[in-house]
Amino acid sequence: MLTESRAGSVAAASLVRDFTELGVRPGTVLHVQASLRALGPVPGGAATVVEALLEALGERGTLVAYTATPENSATSRIHRAATAGLSPAEVDDYHARMPRFDPAATPCSPTMGVLSEAIRTHPDALRSRHPQTSWAAVGPQARTITEHHPLTSHLGPESPLGRLYDLDARVLMLGVPMDRFTAFHLADQRMPDVPQREYRCVGTDGWITFKAPDLDDLHFGGLGAEVLASADGVTTAHIGTAECRLVPVREAVDLAERILRRTRA
């Protein structure tokens, strides 16, 4: 358990120690999914957590965040909720006022959390150019992870998420449950006859339409519970007031694939 500084807040040095004790090692590629509210007060907020993670990873490690912008897509659940009840003319006006996606400047969705935004805005961060499902990374593997992100592979094997699998990354679930484990999308897309759907986003040059796999995460809760029940490489700890897990991407995705094939047989 972390030691605490004033008023029950989590000290930065304790964060480094506890990330290391959880299993974060120098040279690791680490995708972090975090709820800072679950972690508790940290002097310096998200910036302090980012620096603690980078210190634990060392110069050879790479820190990664999902920096998606679903508000930028006319076909996302978030966008549909925002425009529900508007007249066709009001929807057209809403679309006309939506800013173009700029990888260097467009903030990630608030639903991604403040830590993802802190990683995106780190001075050394690189970001992929997908207008709906971008990723940001800091470290020596950042370019490898972010430079190739086809429109048709939101969260598939050709995306930065696929690179995390290839690089044997770990995922730090910091106060975030497994029903939000983003890498399960890789297992979904290994299933036969993955349905395709049309997406419409505001890209860097204006509106674009493309077809890609239909993404759904409503089954991730049950899938995560089954994966945790049989995984060997997952480590757990409480950091601050957050329940945390360090999850190997390859093991979790391969287990999830076997579970999905069994249940869908």
At a glance:
By secondary structure, this protein is of the alpha+beta class.
Description:
- The strands form 2 sheets. This protein has a 7-stranded mixed beta sheet, with helices on both faces. Strands 6-7 form a two-stranded antiparallel ribbon.
- It has about 260 residues and is an alpha+beta fold.
- The protein starts with 11 loop residues before the first helix and ends with a helix.
- It is about 35% helix and about 20% strand.
- Residues about 1-10 have low confidence and may be disordered.
- The protein has 11 helices and 9 strands.
- The longest helix has 16 residues, at about 250-265.
- A hairpin with a 2-residue loop joins strand 8 and strand 9 (about 240-250).
- Helix 3 packs across helix 6 and helix 10 packs across helix 11.
- The protein has one domain.
Provide the fold topology.
Layout: H1 12-22, E1 29-34, H2 36-39, H3 45-57, E2 62-66, H4 77-83, H5 88-96, H6 114-120, E3 126-127, E4 135-138, H7 142-146, H8 160-166, E5 170-174, H9 184-188, E6 196-203, E7 206-213, H10 220-230, E8 235-239, E9 242-248, H11 249-264
The sequence of SSEs as H and E is HEHHEHHHEEHHEHEEHEEH
Overall, the morphology is: globular
What topology, given as strand order, has the largest sheet?
Answer: 3-4-2-1-5-9-8
Structural class: alpha+beta
Q: Strand fraction band?
A: 15-25%
Rg calc: 19 Å
Which runs of at least 5 residues are low in confidence (pLDDT < 50)?
A: 1-8
End-to-end Cα distance, whole Å, is 43 Å
Mean pLDDT: 93
State the helical fraction: 25-40%
The biggest beta sheet is recorded as:
7 strands, mixed
**How many helical stretches?**
11
**How many strands in all?**
9
Protein name: AAC(3) family N-acetyltransferase
Keywords: Acyltransferase, Transferase
Organism: Streptomyces kaniharaensis
Family: Belongs to the antibiotic N-acetyltransferase family.
